[in-house]
Each structure stands twice: as structure tokens, then as C-alpha cells.
Amino acid sequence: MPPASLAPPAAELAGALYDEVDTLADELVRRITEQIEVYRQARIVDHRELRRSLVDNMRQILGHMRGDRDTDVSAPREIGRRRAAQGVPLPEVLRAYRLGFAFVWQRLLDAARRSGRRSVDALLDAATTIWELADDYSLALTDAYRQETSERVIAADRRRSGLLSAILDGPGSGSHSTWEVAKLLDLPYEGTFLVLVAEAPDGESSPLPRFEDRLRQLDVGSAWRSQPDHEIGVLSLGRRRDPAEILALLDQVAVGRVGVSPAFGCLDGAARALRLAQVALETLPPGTKDVRQLDDDPHIDLLVRDRETTRVFVLRVLRGVLVLPDYERGMLLATARAWLDTHGSAAEAGRLLYCHENTVRHRIRRLEEHLGGSLDDPRQVSDLTIALQAIRTFPELGRRIDASAP
């Protein structure tokens, strides 16, 4: 039986049109390809496939109107999924659908006018039901299109994340070489790269809102791997972009802690860079909003490999300094850094510290007393250099300790 709101004359019109679907489909294909550019290009949507989908949809619509089937939205759902897979923009898909419904309505109206006033009145009375049916079909198409798009985005993200793991987890972690992964991720193999680890404080919202959009504006490529409580990114800065620009941008957008690796020149170094970025994040106080980048010091790999061994080493070298009151401890550590940075020049260190070179020499002698050795000894200088680098990497190692502690 036809739907209750469709009088028999309207159902009969739909039935008559149902028998002409094959002919109607040819004309509708011509209209759609003439009026919508994306459908005109058969390489995107094959015209034979377009015709088959139009036949299926018109049969479902007209079959429902003549009363021989319940509402069936399988055809629009199939079109929605297929057009999403083909990359046809949703507005253009819906435009084609509206053209199709308008075409069917016009054909029904022409047939009603030829049949007489009674058929026209019956069709007009059924107009609301027909256009509600059009809405149902359009909604079904839209839902299917968005679902397919979402599934494809998720699948692409998973594949991209899996590919990224091949370079972040180190050699032997995937079936592709680093060079192959770079091509698949649309990243260069060589250039200037950063790895960053951004913490999501609540574990749900983005730790770097709109950061990827800002990177695209700077022409910086990126690839990402999502974890439950943080995001890992590999950034390709090209050969001209200054990493300082990225750090400044991170300061603006970050909502939690962000650790950044030193810059490196080849994607083969991504696994090491990830370790350093993780260390940079871990050395920031929990619950803060801050960005930290580690220096690429020659000793950095040794320092981050075993934190406990590093702590013991710093205590062995600097224990005599770390037990001092805050002001004196900070002054001696700053003097030691300046003296080493200027290759043992008291005059240059004095300019860095805004004090006289004799003051620097006096502080160095006091430092030697607390170190228990002379800085004329290359081994003592080496130990001090590494210990200060460890404090720079792990700032908590430079805090005051209790003189009575073992």
C-alpha cells in the first residue's frame, strides 16, 4: 500500500515514472555533469557508476512513493560512503542529490498535469511527504559520508603514527627504512628537525591547540604520534627556519609541559632526539606550563642514559659546593660555568659575570678548595665540566644538600 499521505493518483504517477527510470537516469546524468564540475571529470566519478547510483536512488524513492516498500536509505548511504572515498566534496554531493530530487519532482508534476487536475491536487497534497523523504535521504547520505571520512582519517592517522614509530623507536622497529618512511610521511630525509613531547594536562584536550595550523603557515612540516597523556611530534624546519621561532610559538600555544630536542640534521637521529625531548619534559616541574630544550652537549647521551649514576657522579664531584648556602653555592657554580665557557680566562669570565677578573680568580681558588683539587689538573676540569652539564640537564641536581646526608 502507498504511504497514508499519498493519495492513489500520486502513487500511480510514481509507479508510472518507476518504469521509466532507465531513460530518466540518462537525462539526469547529463544535467549533473553539465552543472557540477567535479562530476564532469569522469576520472573522479565514472559516469557509468554515476548512472547506476542514480538508477538505484530513483527506484528506492519512487518505489517508496508508489507504496511497494518501506523507507530504504541504503542507496544514499552507499553513495555517501563512495563519494567520500572518491574525495568528492560533500557540498557537491548534496547539490547533485538536490538536482536529482528536483528532477524527479518535475517529472512527477509534468505527468500529473498531463493526467488532469485531480492528479495535480493529489501530488501537491503529497509534496510535504515527498520533501520530507528528500530530507531523510540527504541526512542518510551526509551521515554516511562523514562516517566514511572519519574512518579514513582515523585509518590514515594510525598508519602515519605507525610509520612515525619506525623512526622514533629506532632502527629495526619497522619494515621500512628511514628514507622510505620519510617519503611516506612527506618529510625530507635531511634538513633541520626537532622532536617535541607535549604533555596533555587533562589527558583529553589538545596540549598544543591549533599548533599544526600555525606550523603550516610557517611552511614547517610535521608528523605526529598520539599517546594517552601526551603528543609526540617530528618537525621539519627546512634549512632556513630558525628553531627559536618554534620555541617562541610553543610558548604561546602550550597548555602544559613541553620538552624539545636539540635540532638535528637527519631523520636517523629521531630516536635519540625523542629521548632527549622526554628528558627535557621530565625536568620541568609537574603541573607547570613551560617549554624546555636541551643543549646538544657531547656528554648528553651519557648523562641521560642512567640518571642515578649521573646523580652519584655529581655528588662525588660537587658535594663540597652543594652543601654551601644558596647564595655562595649559586655564585661558585655560575663562576665555574663562566670560567669553563671562556676556556679558563678570568678576564673574559669577569666580563660575563660583571665583576673584576681578580674576583673571578678569588672565587676559582675557593671553588678548588670545595672541590678538593686543582683546576690545573685536566681530570678535575673534565669532571667539573661533566658535572655542570649534568646540572644544566637536570637542574634538581644543583640544589643544596644536607652536609650530614650520606
Would you mind describing this structure in some detail?
The protein has 18 helices and six strands. It has 406 residues and is an alpha+beta fold. The protein folds into three domains: 8-151, Globin-like (Orthogonal Bundle), CATH 1.10.490; 191-296, Alpha-Beta Plaits, CATH 3.30.70; 304-398, PucR C-terminal helix-turn-helix domain (Arc Repressor Mutant, subunit A). Strands 1, 2, 3, 4, 5 and 6 form a six-stranded mixed sheet that branches. A hairpin with a 3-residue loop joins strand 2 (221-226) and strand 3. The protein is rod-shaped and about 115 Å long. Mean pLDDT is 85; it is low at 1-5.
What characteristics describe this protein?
Globin-like, Alpha-Beta Plaits, Arc Repressor Mutant, subunit A, 3 domains, 6-stranded mixed β-sheet, 18 helices, 6 strands, 8% strand, disordered N terminus
Short recap of the structure:
This protein has about 400 residues and is of the alpha+beta class. The chain has helices spanning about 10-20, 20-35, 35-40, 45-65, 75-85, 90-115, 115-125, 125-170, 180-185, 210-215, 245-255, 270-280, 300-305, 305-320, 325-340, 345-355, 355-370, 380-395; strands at about 190-200, 220-225, 230-235, 255-260, 265, 290-295.
